[in-house]
Amino acid sequence: MTGSSHESASALPHPAAMASALREALPQFRQVDWLEQTGSTNADLLARARHADGPPDRPWLLGTHLQSQGRGRAGRTWQNRIGANLMFSCAFDVFLPARQLPALAPLIGMVTCQALRTRLAPRCRPRLTMKWPNDLLWDQAKLAGILIESTRSGTAQAADHHLIIIGMGLNLEDARALSQSLDRRIADWAEIVTDDPTAAHFTATDLAACAARSWYDALNHATAHGFADLPARYAEVDGLVGRMLDVLDDGHLRHTGAAVGIDTDGRLLLRNVDGTQAISIGEISVRLQR
Question: How far, in Å, CA of 216 to CA of 139, rounded?
Fold first, then answer.
């Protein structure tokens, strides 16, 4: 699904038109809606799943032009304007042991990065990478963030049945203003288009469908085959490998070392004088050393 040569990703269609196009692009999804405005698409899907009279079959997709209570990892909040961000969430039924759920964060980040790379010219694809556990980077600047939340499904009949909500916010425009206000470099799709005209052919609708389809396929693959191939696949998009990192938890320095990939549990691997440390997914901030 591509746009015309003059249509940019930030030219968001009317919500009803966007929902209609996504329903056509994602026949596997049982419910697809796009709103003008809401509080949080993740919270909306969680609330919808808890209603006994809600639609029983998933996956679902819910997007919005504007979020008033959007949040990221560690409860971070952020502001946006219509057209500046691509914001949507998907709900899936996942059948995995609870101990494997933390691996979903790097898995989903990895497949999203790989999927969006297909919308770029081959020469530009290596510039789109991942920062563990699931931030997308363009030239080491944050392009998108992903929030994954899990709960027991209200209709669960098995111990391994979980409801997984995946939400993504991708910067379409306004990166320059964000960079100034946050005092760190932020990237957006408009910047990518400037460097890679190939990216201009894909609309916001296509980017959302591309990411959602990759999540659907990845969760099915993980359910059927597990996570044995996760480290090798992750290595293809790893934006931290070989870099010296500080790992902080609640503002306190916990680990320092060189990033050497991830393991099959999705944990970040750091090598230092004490050997290789496996960093569990949690409210941990990973910062490149200056």
Answer: 27
In one-letter notation, the amino acid at residue 236 is: E
pLDDT at residue 156, rounded to an integer: 56
Say how many C-beta atoms besides its own lie within 10 A of residue 229's C-beta: 12
CA-derived radius of gyration, the chain: 18
Residue with tokens 């930030």: 10
With beta carbons less than 8 A apart as the criterion, state whether 138 and 192 touch. yes
Q: Where are the domains of the chain?
A: 15-235, 244-288
The CATH code belonging to domain 15-235 is: 3.30.930.10
- As a dihedral over the C-alpha atoms of residue 187, residue 23, residue 71, residue 231, rounded to 10 degrees, the angle is -70
Closest to 101 in 3D by CA, of 286, 251, 227, 236: 227
What architecture (CATH level 2) is domain 244-288? Roll (2.30)
Residue 289's pLDDT band (cuts 50, 70, 90): low
- Mean pLDDT of the residues in the chain: 87
- Give 85's strand partners: 171
- The structure tokens 């090798």 sit at 232
Query: Rounded to the nearest 5 degrees, what angle is found at the Cα of 179, between the Cα atoms of 178 and 181?
Result: 60
User: What is the number of residues in the chain?
Assistant: 290
Segment 101-152, tens digit of pLDDT: 999 999 999 999 999 999 999 999 999 999 999 899 999 999 999 999 998 7
Residue listed under structure tokens 């004490």: 274
What is the dihedral angle through the alpha carbons of 66, 116, 265, 261, rounded to the nearest 10 degrees?
-120
